[in-house]
Amino acid sequence: MKLLFLNGPNLNMLGIREPEIYGQETYRDLEKYIQNFCVKLGIQCEIFQSNHEGALVDAIQAAYGKFDGIVINPAAYTHTSVALLDALKAVALPAVEVHLSDVSRREDFRQISYVRAACQRTYAGHGFQGYRLAAEFLLEQEKK
Fold first, then answer.
1. What is the DSSP letter of 128?
2. Active site residues per annotation
3. Quick one: which of 26, 20, 7, 2 has its CA closest to 97?
4. Is the separation of the CB atoms in 133 and 122 below 8 Å?
């Protein structure tokens, strides 16, 4: 199985940005965490982060025919981007939405997720472990 892990705006600031919400670990720590569990699960992975919506759309489109699924943390674009939703729908790859924090317990505007309509599942509030849960879910779905 080959998965694309996409991360949206400001995730490159992990460890600096609001550590009371997102913790002390850095984006590099997240990349290492994903790479390590993918090796253990026998998953090939590619990890991409961008602060730019179009770059994320391009990455989703480029995944078509190349990846078996997408794990996406759209970050702030969760609540604003129909473009990401449309890109996910266009490629029709199995996708899982991930959020480090429990967005259901945060500001009202964070209760809206446009990408969720194109995702099979959402993991929120599990920190880095949400990425592993998403990958394990996609791995199980592929076996069915």
1. T
2. 22, 99
3. 7
4. no
